[in-house]
Amino acid sequence: MTNFKLDVDSDGIALVTWDMPGRSMNVIDPTMITELAAIVEKVATDAAIKGAVMTSAKDAFCAGADLTMLEMLGRLFGELVKTSGEEAAAAKLFEESRKLSQLYRRLETSGKPWVAAINGTALGGGFELCLACHYRVAADNERTAVGLPEIKVGLFPGAGGTQRVARMLMPADALQMLLKGDQLRLNRAKAMKLVDAVVPAADLIKTAKDWIKAGGKAKAPWDVEGFRLPGGPVYSKAGMMTFPAANALYRRETYDNYPAARALLQVVYEGLQLPIDRALTVESRYFAKILRSPEAAAMIRSLFVSMGELNKGARRPAGVPPSNLKKIGIIGAGFMGAGIATVSAGAGLEVVLIDRDQESADKGKAHVQKTLTDQVNKGRTTGTQRDAVLARITATPDYGALAGCDLVIEAVFEDRKVKAEATLKAQAVVPDVVFASNTSTLPITSLAETAKDASRFIGIHFFSPVERMLLVEVILGKKTGDAALALALDFVRAIHKTPIVVNDTRGFYANRCVLNYLQEGHLMLMEGVPPAMIENVARMAGMPVGPLSLNDEVALDLGWKILKATEVDLGPKAVHPQQKKLLQELVEKQGRFGRKNGKGFYDYPQNGPKRLWPGLLDLQPKKLDPEKISVEELKSRFLVVQALEAARTFEEGVVTDVREADVGSILGFGFAPFTGGTLSYIDMMGSKKFVELCKALEKKHGARFKPSPLLLDLAAKGDTFYRRFPPDKRKAA
Fold it and tell me: Can 128 be counted among the known catalytic residues?
């Protein structure tokens, strides 16, 4: 065997140790399934073996399934449809996709007791394996988590997870766990009885074996005669209080955009009315159906395969030795600088946090402390860990403290003179260090003119709030060299963010797309669309928040400054007159700057939730009848205007990798995740149909919807972005 080691002790207890060669974590792939099946059969049929303990030789138990395996199944289905017809292809996909579920059920009914000795994080199919075991004991480790996160990549647990969890928890709790896909810390998992015991790591295997020696039962509760569901039958008073409400919540949160979430509800609802074996078959049938959905294919590709490749350094220049980052400097201790300090020190780096005076620098460190204390209060970290992070941050106005830094990041006010001054002061101390700007709008090439060596100047653009946003844009100036790029990517990897590499342009990639989203909301408002309808339809389209709400978060006065700067640099035709009129009224005449001053498109009362400002209605030149407005057209406008801009950036060479366009759009500005990202949205619709939609919107709403030459060419040839511009897999580390 390649992936497992099997040892049987003198008591007849088998220790199955999972240790996949050449991987930092165990994953489920075809070879693992084949080998584990052979082990299960040996344990089941060998009379000398009394039971088995499953554990891992790695720091984690299992990261889940290798989703490239599921991608392969999707391609197999497509090929079989062409050669054997859809019915035969569907049957083959069903049989292949349920192999893991059948294997776990064979383990569960093998007649021998199995114990999962969880020595580290167990996710997805790895945790489903634990659930199929008859007892679960975990090593006490504050970093360990368990969970079923499949919903986050457009799937649901397909190896028995939906049925076992729904038989272990109250249905409302089971649905919440499955639909949120969150990772559970051990204390919570034990309280929910998903884990039976938590013991010191040194006692893990002994505790697992002792349970078997003490007469541990080789039957799951649902296989014992007289088993009762924790929440009672589906068609009971309690059941009827759960499932209709769950359906309403599902529609409110997803607007029916996620086939996997709908299928998950159906699987749990139907499965709980059936014996476990029939329920597992139902789960497998729905799982195979979801595997065939374009949403699952797009989400797996972008949020698992592509994101994984980018995280591993797909865009890192070959031949540049790895960086050994230990100490970084951050100039500017404001909201962004403090956020960068938080994630950097949290990743183990020493941080020098500089501002104009000691009071300002201390204020930035205090913000870090508040952020970490909030995490402690929510149980996401400990007081000891918080104190260790704070100890790695030195707050000072002294630029001399930058000595020894491997990287310096400037996060000062968006003003060329201020940034130039910071650059010169820092480079007087560390002249050869790689210097990065966190600018969100100013071109990197022009900022690099201040640097002593433009080849060592780069953009590292974080998104707000830094602690929560996963994306970082790494921006190349015209003279940025490979050494600077490699170090920037190594830094982003060290702080556990996902990087995309973009070439220098106004607004880079993410801001260009999201500014179009905000503008579309502004224009709808000036057309007479009710404000509440704008916000709700944007969420129906798949965006996390409406454009008016998002604009309040990023600040209306900032948007007004960007619009005025664009007009000065590019001329009056570069801005839309209706948007200019709206922002000028809100900012200059009404003094509404957004959430930061408590009034923007929304009012923010001290007590109670935010609410749309009634005065918006007075700003509309006319008011449309909502009953006569096409919701589908509004949804299309929101998504198309962003996807079009993404296509333009790709055509201009701002973004050069389709993976980065898609991953960046989801992580950076929340582009409807079920589409797989901006370019996948176009590919999923089909370039010809997308261009037709653009032309229809252009005719009705103007030139901003005009399809670019590349899109016209793709449509004419029936081509797609991923087919014409396949990612270079050789670049992945």
Answer: yes
The answer, yes or no, to whether residue 730 has pLDDT greater than 80, is: no
Residue numbers of the domain that contains 491: 327-501
Percent of the chain whose predicted confidence (pLDDT) is above 70: 99
Indicate if 158 and 283 belong to the same structural domain.
yes
- Report residue 392 as tokens: 């790695």
| Confidence class for position 729, pLDDT limits 50, 70, 90 | low
Residue type at 646?
Answer: A
Nearest Cα to 472, choosing from 663, 647, 320? 663
Among the listed residues 108, 128, 410, 520, the single catalytic one is: 128
Q: Cα dihedral angle (273, 274, 275, 280), rounded to 10 degrees?
A: -120
Active site residue 627: no
Tokens of 180: 């949120």
In DSSP notation, 537-595 reads: HHHHHT-SS-HHHHHHHH-HHHHHHHHHHHHHHH-GGGS-HHHHHHHHIIIIIT---BG
Claim to verify: residue 492 and residue 541 sit in the same structural domain: no
The single residue of 96, 108, 150, 535 carrying the catalytic annotation is 150
Number of structural domains, the chain?
3
Residue whose pair of structure tokens reads 């019915």 in the numeric block: 87
Contact 26, 61 (CB under 8 A): yes
Q: What is the pLDDT of residues 307-322, one digit of tens each?
A: 999 999 999 998 899 9
Name the residue among 195, 272, 189, 268 with its Cα closest to residue 227. 272
